[in-house]
Design a protein that fits this description.
This protein has about 300 residues and is an alpha/beta fold. It has helices at about 5, 30-40, 65-70, 85, 95, 105-125, 165-180, 190-200, 225-230, 245-255, 265-270, 285-290, 295, and strands spanning about 15-20, 25, 45-55, 60, 75-80, 125-130, 130-135, 145-150, 155-160, 215, 220-225, 260, 275, 300-304.
């Protein structure tokens, strides 16, 4: 996790995190790969870091068609991160040394919640969840230090931009809160709930309405829900529905969305994996054809 691009504060960066920790690495799932490719295509001026979390020194990244897709982009970089080593010298060094995540009932999600803040605190840049498609170039947002509102008075950490200036103050406070108030049994306490409280601490009295962007002095901007969540969690299944692709695509176009969150985790809660045949005309497939065409071309049967 130490190279010239990462350590160049002027170079713009986007981070994705695969927080499963295992010894053998084979990138097999096209959905997260689609998110990474969409970011690389829409942001040729930025370096895209796909971070694999590891708890061992021995790493075997097995090649696949999806790895070949990544290698075809000059701005996509694959890196490995050992949390214990990476956290040394930070306020979370003891947290990882004592393996506090062992107490978590959402270990994979909490690992990602924490590491995204450490990465942005150290390097600055943009973090995106692996179920977020990038539709336009980030420079068009013309903002630094922003996240998205998912609902009224809730700021999510699925899309999080923090620089090394004012954003460093935000990420530093976030790390202190994680060190002191980590909640191992809560799904969202260390993510959206904590981020929302931090934004409000920098912006007393702020009303995080979802209809319009809310800017708090120089510290933070909250993007409106429809720019990141044109399809809310209440209707997320429409993304995978063969019967309403035109309706979904029209909603996305009308909202002038910057990102599309495709709610991959909701499938786990729904206890059903929505495997889409690559011949499907569901909205998500249509988006994949446009925003991650190289990943789409690797599909042999399903987009899952």
């Amino acid at each position: 996790m130490n190279d010239e691009i990462l350590n160049n504060a002027k170079q713009k960066k986007i981070f994705f995190i695969e927080s499963h920790t295992n010894r053998d690495r084979k990138l097999e799932s096209p959905r997260p790969a689609c998110s990474v490719e969409s970011a690389a295509r829409t942001n040729p001026d930025m370096d895209i870091y796909f971070i694999f979390v590891t708890d061992s020194d021995g790493i075997d990244m097995q090649y696949s068609d999806l790895i070949d897709v990544f290698m075809s982009y000059d701005n996509i970089h694959l890196r490995f991160l050992n949390p214990v080593e990476f956290s040394k010298g930070t306020i979370l060094e003891k947290f990882f040394h004592d393996n506090k995540l062992n107490d978590s009932i959402h270990k994979i999600e909490h690992m990602s919640d924490i590491l995204r803040v450490l990465l942005l605190n150290k390097y600055g840049g943009q973090y995106l969840d692996l179920d977020v498609l990038s539709l336009i170039q980030l420079s068009a947002i013309n903002q630094v230090n922003f996240a998205c509102c998912e609902d009224k008075n809730v700021v999510t950490n699925a899309v999080l931009n923090l620089d090394l200036d004012k954003g460093f103050d935000v990420s530093s406070l976030y790390l202190r809160k994680l060190a002191l108030n980590y909640k191992p049994k809560s799904w969202s306490a260390n993510g959206p709930i904590m981020l929302t409280s931090i934004v409000k601490s920098f912006c007393p009295g702020i009303d995080l309405i979802i209809e319009n962007s809310t800017k708090c002095d120089e510290y933070f901007t909250t993007l409106p829900r429809d720019k990141c969540y044109p399809l809310t969690y209440g209707v997320w299944k429409k993304m995978y529905n063969e019967e309403s692709p035109d309706e979904v695509l029209k909603i996305i176009k009308k909202s002038e969305a910057i990102f599309v969150h495709f709610w991959n985790k909701m499938q786990e809660f729904d206890k059903k994996i929505y495997k889409l045949p690559f011949t499907s005309h569901a909205a998500y497939i249509e988006l994949a054809k446009e925003y991650c065409p190289s990943v789409y071309k690797t599909l042999e049967r399903y987009f899952k």
